[in-house]
Structure formats: structure tokens, C-alpha cells
Design a protein that fits this description.
Helix content: 25-40%
Distance between the termini: 28 Å
Order of helices and strands: HEHHEHHEHEHEHEH
Largest sheet: 6 strands, parallel
Shape: globular
Radius of gyration: 17 Å
Strand order of the largest sheet: 3-2-1-4-5-6
CATH superfamily: Isochorismatase-like
Strand content: 15-25%
Number of helices: 9
Number of domains: 1
Structural class: alpha/beta
Length: 224
């Protein structure tokens, strides 16, 4: 787990602008959902082609939080990246950002039905949880996933965001969620990046412009 905090100068900047650090003093459980993003074998398993080692450290906190939220009637939604065979629906990424010798392996890891595309087995998903496939960093951009429709249909407007990578899919989803008028809380102890610096950068980006940043226990304490 990342041992980082938002820098004092960022805290001062935020407080000077809006008069307080945190956006939300309370959250409505009946309008809240937990999004757990990309906690799949391809990212979590040791030696996986797109491994995020720190993701293994947030498995236990995510499990604890998910169990507590289910007890309060908050839906848990597992948002999982899924691309077509060979990544042909996302060639703009694989062809540009992945070395030629690694493209096939990276794309195959996230193909629907592959072992690596599946949820990391130590995560305790429940039968009543929802699973949503996305094929872009953000689950909200264009036709990347049906997530927005699912949330609107259930009158859910507040999102607790967990998963990996903090500064890629979690941050992209958080940014777009805010722009779609969802309330966003990024969970600092339930997200993982490739470095502490990248983790901190997203925490600071989000709290300044896109949502709140809280630990999982703090988020639970806000629910009513």
C-alpha cells in the first residue's frame, strides 16, 4: 500500500479556495456505489504482463470495505477491462504505447475469457455484485461501458473509486464521472499505482478539481 499524503501546500491551496479540504461531510448510502476498477489477474498477479505490484496490497482493504458497504445496501461494481482479440478495438493504444515484441502478450492478457482477464481470485466478490466490462481507460467515455446507464437507472450519483492504476483508469474514470455530475470520492488506501509519486499526483489532482480523497474508514463514516 502506498504510504503517501497530499502535500501541505496543496492542502493550503484547496482550503484557501473553498474554505475546507473535504467536499463531503456526509454521503447517502442509498445513492452510493463502490467501483472497483481493473483488479484483474493481468494487473495484480506476480509477473503478469501489465503487473502493478502495489495492487496486491489493496486487496484486503477492498474486501473489508466491500463487505461493510454491502451491509449498508451499497452496491459493489467490479469494472474490468476487456478488449477484443489482439486488441483490435484499441489499436491506438497497443500499436503506439506497447513495444512490438510485447503487444500480443499485453493484448491477450485482457481478452474476454482469458485467465488473466479475470478477477484476481483473492478478491471476495459476492453473488449480488455487478460486473461491468470496459474497453477504455475511463468507464464513462463514449461507448466504453454501460456503467453510466446502470448508475442512472438505479438513481446512484455518488461513487467511491478503488482499484488500479490510480493515475490511469481510476483517475480517468473519476474525472469523467465528475464531468457527468457524479459525486466522486477516490479511496486513497484502496487504489494502487506503479510508484508513490504517481499515486500522490492523482490524489492531488482529484482533491483540487474532481472529487474528494478519503481513506476507506473515513468514507464509511460519512455514509448515512
Amino acid at each position: 500500500m502506498h504510504n503517501v499524503a497530499i502535500r501541505p501546500e496543496i492542502v493550503e491551496r484547496v482550503v484557501a479556495r473553498r474554505g475546507r479540504l473535504h467536499l463531503f461531510e456526509a454521503l447517502e448510502a442509498k445513492r452510493t456505489a463502490l467501483l472497483v476498477i481493473d483488479m484483474q489477474n493481468a494487473f495484480v498477479a506476480p509477473g503478469a504482463p501489465i503487473e502493478v505490484p502495489a495492487a496486491r496490497a489493496i486487496v484486503a482493504p477492498i474486501n473489508r470495505l466491500a463487505a461493510a458497504l454491502r451491509g449498508r445496501g451499497v452496491p459493489v461494481i467490479w469494472v474490468m477491462h476487456e478488449n477484443q482479440q489482439g486488441g483490435r478495438d484499441w489499436a491506438g493504444f497497443f500499436d503506439a504505447f506497447v513495444a512490438p515484441g510485447k503487444r500480443g502478450q499485453a493484448a491477450a492478457a485482457l481478452e474476454a475469457g482469458s485467465r488473466l482477464q479475470g478477477l484476481w481470485p483473492e478478491l471476495e466478490a459476492a453473488p449480488g455484485d455487478l460486473r461491468v466490462a470496459k474497453n477504455r481507460y475511463s468507464a464513462f467515455i463514449g461507448n466504453a461501458s454501460p456503467l453510466e446507464g446502470i448508475l442512472r437507472q438505479r438513481s446512484l450519483d455518488t461513487l467511491l473509486i478503488a482499484g488500479t492504476k490510480t493515475n490511469v483508469c481510476c483517475e480517468c474514470t473519476a474525472r469523467d464521472a465528475m464531468m457527468l455530475d457524479f459525486k466522486v470520492v477516490l479511496l486513497s488506501d484502496c487504489t494502487a499505482a506503479l510508484s508513490d509519486e504517481e499515486q500522490r499526483a492523482t490524489l492531488e489532482n482529484v482533491i483540487q478539481q474532481f472529487g474528494d480523497v478519503r481513506g476507506s474508514d473515513e468514507a464509511l463514516a460519512l455514509l448515512r
